[in-house]
Amino acid sequence: MKNIKDFSLEKLKEEFLLLGEKPYRAEQVFEWLYQKKATSFEEMTNLSLDLRENLKKHFAMHNFNILRKQESKDGTKKFLFDLLDGCAIETVLMEYHHGKTLCVSSQVGCKMGCKFCASTGIKFDRNLTSGEIVEQILAVEREENCTISNVVFMGIGEPFDNYDNVINAIRILNHPKGLNIGARHISISTSGIVPRIYDLAKENIPCTLSISLHATTNEKRSQMMPINKKYPIEELMKACKEYIKITNKRISFEYALAKENNDNLEDAKELVKLLRGMLAHVNLIPINKIENGVYVKSTNENILKFRDYLNSKGIVATVRRELGSDIDAACGQLRRKNLNT
Ligand code: SAH
């Protein structure tokens, strides 16, 4: 059966027409789901009993169960959700001064194979549906009795490898009758699937695009991120420039600093050359070492030198705060886990 949370409002209206129901009823259902946070059709008391019965016959409503919840010393919380088919995914809630940010997963596992990331080395199972992406936010809001103000697609998976479901989920998050989270409060992070960068530029969704760059030469980037062999740096940067031209939006470049790998002044100089003149921001991430990983975090001194060099050359760079590392919830530490791992 179709999960009602898989539908954008426009698509839900079409479904309602097919069922012989009025489209404005779809708006009411949308409000129940995303504004009043209903978890069953029974609760939708301004709909007739007949309509509620009809909906129950045609749609499932998937509400996640929490398999595990962990809390870090810094207040970051990590949730493991049961996807009803034996799969599970992790989602991370972070507190910032500007509100609560949820780091959501887009796939069960990941095919990209980045050498520094814990989501590599676990089997890829499947894409998440739009409903499963949206439900990560709803389930955390229910559990924590809170409102999520920002959503980042930086959990497990490559959002651009599940493009349609991710975009559809963003439309549900973004809609005033949906979760009403402004596009400017939504970020998509990609390892660099170039054709989808051009696609996103045409969607007219002013969300933030983050590019996981991590290296400035093809040799080094291909070692760290196999996707670079398919879409090398020149093609990636060309797409980024086009994206900025079309959307007039700044791109955020993520650069995970690993000791004696990509953290010396030569790398910083190359990065300046790559980004010169672009509407860009650099997010420096002290790399988190993963089990059996070869990459080790740069020293604080090198991280700050790297940042200061970029800033001195007019490239805005900040160091990302490390949150949740004591519960394996920091960047790159998420895995698809089941209860006994
Ligand atoms: N597939 C998407 C989203 C992944 S995670 C992407 O590649 O962008 C979000 C960010 O965390 C990415 O920039 C990713 O490269 C980074 N990351 C992954 N593993 C990391 C690690 N061990 N330490 C620091 N950052 C890491």
How would you describe this structure to a colleague?
Helix content is 35%, strand content 20%. With 341 residues, it is of the alpha/beta class. It folds into two domains: 2-60, DNA polymerase, domain 1 (Orthogonal Bundle); 65-338, TIM Barrel. Strand 4 and strand 5 (88-96) form a beta hairpin. The longest helix has 15 residues, at 130-144. The mean pLDDT is 95. The structure holds S-adenosyl-L-homocysteine. Residues 112, 114, 116-117, 154, 158, 189-191, 212, 254, 256, 285, 287-288, 290, 331-332 line the site of S-adenosyl-L-homocysteine (SAH).
Q: Count of helices?
A: 11
CATH superfamily grouping of the largest domain: Aldolase class I
Rg, Å, rounded:
21 Å
- List each distinct ligand once: S-adenosyl-L-homocysteine
What is the count of β-strands? 14
What is the CATH topology classification name of the largest domain?
TIM Barrel
Q: From the coordinates shown, what is the CATH architecture of the largest domain?
A: Alpha-Beta Barrel
Residues in helices, as a percent range = 25-40%
Structural class: alpha/beta
Strand-and-helix sequence, N→C?
EHHHEEEEEEEHEHEHEHHHEHEHE
Name the beta content range.
Answer: 15-25%
Number of domains: 2
Largest sheet strand order: 3-4-5-6-9-10-11-12-13-14
Terminal CA distance reads 31 Å
Largest sheet: 10 strands, mixed
How is the secondary structure organized here?
Elements lengths: L1 E2 L5 H10 L4 H12 L14 H10 E2 L4 E7 L5 E6 L5 E9 L2 E5 L3 E2 L17 E2 L2 H15 L5 E4 L9 H12 L11 E5 L3 H10 L4 E5 L5 H7 L2 H4 L2 H15 L3 E7 L7 H11 L4 E7 L13 H13 L3 E4 L22
Parallel strand pairs: 1-2, 6-9, 9-10, 10-11, 11-12, 12-13, 13-14
Antiparallel strand pairs: 3-4, 4-5, 5-6, 7-8
Helix pairs in contact: 1-2, 4-5, 6-9, 10-11
The protein binds S-adenosyl-L-homocysteine (SAH).
The site of S-adenosyl-L-homocysteine (SAH) has 18 residues, from strand 10 and strand 12.
